């Protein structure tokens, strides 16, 4: 299982998140999704380029939003409202952890604050948000220990050059295989 990496191609929307599938890298298959469409799953060489393109587009959308620091609505808002389904791993009064629909490792969980409160990216964090930032790290640690007992990586993408494609602060918890270094 250590060499297993699942890549997901989403023709209609590359950043919808919420459920995970488990195909080996050599497998290419289609599957009906909870969103009512069919998607292809399998290893592709375009995945990194797609993520960078999605990040650039998201950065432009964020920059052109109303300027109040909140940014435009995101897919995470749809998950939190129940409009889009997700596979929850952990939920409490301030955070939600769910499986990433575009996993970059055999285990890939996303941790988000339920109330964005201007936390579109880590570099926007204010001093009064230290408690929620600490809570998100603690939840990521709990999820990592439970899901990836042999070790895990926590990633926060920040801004366009950090390849952030959803402007609602989120932490990626990844494991289930040996991670490589350097990562990027």
TrEMBL record:
InterPro entries in UniProt: Histidine_triad_CS, Histidine_triad_HIT, HIT-like, HIT-like_sf
Pfam families, per database record: HIT
Intervals of motif Histidine triad motif: 168-172
Active site: 170
Domain HIT: 75-184
Protein name: HIT domain-containing protein
Source species taxonomy: Eukaryota, Sar, Stramenopiles, Ochrophyta, Bacillariophyta
């Amino acid at each position: 299982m250590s060499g297993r990496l699942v890549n997901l191609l989403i023709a209609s929307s590359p950043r919808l998140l919420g459920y995970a599938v488990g195909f080996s890298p050599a497998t290419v298959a289609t599957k009906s999704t909870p969103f009512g469409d069919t998607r292809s799953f399998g290893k592709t060489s375009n995945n990194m380029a797609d993520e960078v393109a999605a990040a650039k587009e998201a950065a432009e959308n964020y920059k052109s939003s109303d300027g109040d620091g909140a940014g435009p609505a995101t897919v995470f808002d749809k998950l939190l409202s129940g409009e889009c389904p997700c596979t929850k791993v952990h939920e409490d009064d301030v955070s939600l952890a769910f499986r990433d629909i575009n996993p970059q490792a055999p285990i890939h969980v996303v941790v988000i604050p339920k109330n964005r409160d201007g936390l579109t990216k880590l570099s926007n964090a204010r001093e009064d948000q230290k408690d929620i930032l600490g809570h998100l790290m603690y939840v990521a640690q709990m999820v990592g220990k439970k899901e990836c007992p042999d070790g895990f990586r926590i990633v926060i993408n920040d801004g366009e050059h950090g390849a952030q494609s959803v402007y609602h602060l989120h932490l990626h918890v990844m494991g289930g295989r040996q991670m490589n270094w350097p990562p990027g």
